[in-house]
Amino acid sequence: MQPMDTVSTVIPTMRYADAPAAIDFLCAAFGFERHMVVPGPDGTIAHAQLRFGNGMIMLGSAREDEYGAMVGPPSGAALTGSPYIVVTDVDAHHDRAVAAGARVAMPPADQDHGGRLYSCYDPEGQLWNFGSYDPWA
Question: What fold is seen in the domain 81-137?
Answer without folding.
Answer: 3.30.720
